[in-house]
Amino acid sequence: MNNKLITRNIGRFLVLALLQILVFNNIYLGGYINPCVYVLFIAMLPTSMGYIAMMIVAFATGLCIDVSTNILGLHAFACTFVAFIRGIWLDKIIMRDNDEPIETPSIYGGSYQQFLVYLLLVFLIFHFVYYLLLIFSLRDLPKILIISLISAVISWLLAILYQTLFLRKNKRNELR
After folding, report:
1. What is the DSSP letter of 106?
2. Given this model, what pLDDT does residue 94 score?
3. CA 79, CA 38: separation in Å to the nearest integer?
4. What is the predicted pLDDT for the residue at 26?
């Protein structure tokens, strides 16, 4: 990875982590529903990053959020699990139809619809794992599924808004 890519990812991490800690961690709809937009950072990690490095970065990202919320382990485990399956989904959903390699998965890299499906799946699996561990009862599985779905869709919409607002400038600058 080059320095520009590393700097861009560090900046993305700081922005998304601060948004999560200062804004989104204070939003609880219905007592449980909490958007976790910082998962977008894991979804947008460079495709050239090694598998082990990606899992370590995902674990560290989740651990940072866990420390800020005093819920040790839930975010870290869910983020690591997302990083574990991210490579498979990225290959099957986004990379299969693209002739040229994508450096960083985003709305502007490759097919718009394929990225939206990939991002929704990432948010769905993150929220399902997170709420399954948080509630930790299979008896409440319907509740877990509903809360996961609603939280994932809200996070997904906020992530699309984030990408639309912040990545548009970068795409325009790259075209110049």
Report:
1. B
2. 59
3. 10
4. 85
103-145 tens-digit pLDDT: 777 777 767 788 888 899 999 999 999 999 998 888 999 999 9
Tokens 């382990």 label which residue? 73
Give pTM, 2 decimals. Answer: 0.86
Distance CA 83, CA 75 (A): 12
Q: Which H, E and C letters describe 17-65, residue by residue? A: HHHHHHCHHHCCECCCECCCCCHHHHHCCCCCCCHHHHHHHHHHHHHHH
Enclosing H/E stretch for 154: helix 141-175
Other Cβ atoms closer than 10 A to 47 = 18
What are 74's two structure tokens?
Answer: 């839930």
33 beta partners:
29
94: number of Cβ within 10 Å: 20
Is 48:1 a contact under the CB 8 Å cutoff?
A: yes
CATH of 3-175, one of 1.20.120, 3.40.710, 1.10.287, 1.10.1760: 1.10.1760
Coil/strand/helix, residue 109: strand
Structure confidence at residue 169 as a pLDDT band (50, 70, 90): very low
Tokens of 4: 């520009």
